[in-house]
Automatic annotation (TrEMBL), chain A:
This is ABC transporter ATP-binding protein. Signal peptide: none annotated. It comes from Maribacter polysiphoniae. One of its GO terms (molecular function) is ATP hydrolysis activity. Belongs to the ABC transporter superfamily. Macrolide exporter (TC 3.A.1.122) family. GO terms for cellular component: membrane protein complex; plasma membrane. Residues 6-230 form the ABC transporter domain. Keywords: ATP-binding, Nucleotide-binding, Transport. Pfam families: ABC_tran.
From TrEMBL, chain B:
One of its GO terms (biological process) is lipoprotein localization to outer membrane. It is found in: Cell membrane. The keyword Iron does not apply. Residues 267-397 form the ABC3 transporter permease C-terminal domain. This is ABC-type lipoprotein release transport system permease subunit. PANTHER family: LIPOPROTEIN-RELEASING SYSTEM TRANSMEMBRANE PROTEIN LOLE (PTHR30489). Belongs to the ABC-4 integral membrane protein family. LolC/E subfamily. It comes from the Bacteria.
Amino acid sequence: MAKTIIDAHNLSKTYNADTVPVKAVQDVHIHIEEGEFVALVGPSGSGKSTLLNMIGGLDEPTSGSVVLDQVEITKLPENKLIDFRLHNIGFVFQSYNLIPVLTAKENVGFVLQLQKIPKEEREKRVLNLLHQVGLEDKLNSRPGELSGGQQQRVAVARALASKPKIVLADEPTANLDSKSTANLLDIMAKLNKEEKTTFLFSTHDIRVIQKARRVITLVDGKVESDVQQTPK
Amino acid sequence: MFQIAWRNIWRNKSRSLVVISSIVIGVWAGIFILSFSWGLYQNNINETIFKQLSHIQIHNPKFNVENDSKYTLSPTDTIMTQLQADDRIASVSNRIISNGMISSPTTASGVKIYGIDPLAEVKQIGLDNNVKKGAYLSAGKENAILIGEKLAKKLKIKPKSKVVLTFTNVKSEIVSGAFRVAGVYRSKNISLDEVNVYVLKTQLRKLLELKPTESNEIAILLKDESQLDAVKKYSADLVPDGKVEDWKELSPELGMIIESFNLYTYILTGIILLALTFGIINTMLMSVLERIRELGMLMAIGLNKRKIFIMIMLETFYLTLVGSPLGLLLGWVTVSVFGNIGIDISMFSEGLSSYGFSSMIYPALDNQNYFIIAFMCLITSLLSAIYPALKALRLNPSEAIRKI
């Protein structure tokens, strides 16, 4: 049996606890094993992004714990947490979120630079990744010169650059047309298979849901269903 | 990260240019104000030394206290010869001084009467250059007197008018002498023009009944001011019973004026730097708030807070790095140009010349001060970047990313 890579336990998040409490996430248990390709679905406001942010250590839960690869990140001090994120988690956000002043190549290499990977190795890995996402001809383009789909592919390449164990993607296809969506999903599925990277992404796009091997449905901050499926 | 910071400042060109210009103007204004005041002091100091006091003066210690002509230095001739022989000294002159009253047909006024050797004072204080009407004193005309323009106006007299000087001689008897105005002078120091009158030393000595070897004041002009302390000590050895003072001791009010101008300079520089501070805080804060999402993303992908802080500081540092040299250059050009042609402040000079200030100012500044100003601007801008940078640190990545 594969080992557990994400273990969220009793996770709750309440916003505005002092004034008008909004329970975004309530008592969520999630176990995800290494190499899974999981979609987190649910209507707007169901707490998908909040849950992803807590799992990624971007947001602090009101109660409960998150254990990633045997490290309880909810107990890490801020700087260690940032470091943990740097080495173990790749993020892809809804609206591309690349560094606008850096080229595609530099954006992908940035994380590696932060990890102090030597220049030669960095170059190699960056070229390889951009090749995998089909952007070898856009190496020196800045985000402003790329289409939405291309930017998102750079973001995926960046998320994978540090060889993270987990990639968290918050509605990665929300701003993409159907062709780019299919293209991005194929790339993600391929990388998931080849690199054994665990993917957890939130979405309410039916085409994306169909590609997942496991679908967790969130309603009003609670897990409503958690089913395995064969991707189409 | 250095690269990101550098590229970040060029994202919003007009904003960066505003910050750069404010740094340029800050540095430039700082240099200009400092060089202007420095020019003003230097001008004033030179005026005081070369037109009025000389570098060093020697008096009988009691003369300083009681201002009575009977307290003299002696033997003047021997002292003079020895001082003149010293090659550190540019010129020496000795004077007889008495306080008395000058009367014209209409009115009278208190004056300080200088008995001088006209030729020596040409070299010593350039007195002949100040004569505006009539002629300078010359050896032949025994009863000639040189008076200031302001005093002439007060006494309603002009060259060739007759005046009477009344004072006490060394035996404390009241004596009077009739003089004819040879010339009217105007120096840069109007308040002294009303008080100082010049007559021939031989004439005044006769009236005071002093011996030929006696004088009240010896003034020494140096070739190089750095020799001041050495020559002061040499003179003290030469005239053991005299009191040797340099121009700073002789004119404490000059020091006070300089001090108060220094204070204004600091206040003005402070205001400039304060304006710079707020400009930078404002701009950097805008640039941070504008990039909240991006900063949140940087934190999410693993840029720690220390690095975010450094990045914001670097951006400010780069802006200063671009602005300061430009400001320095502009300041240097301004100082060089105006240092040569001078700045005419005659609009305000009526007030200034009563303090002994000249109306032409030649700004000047030490090289060292340029760097002090640039350094101060750098420190100021880095200090003012701290608040925006801290603001960036307080961001919570998930909230920052959610912001649109």
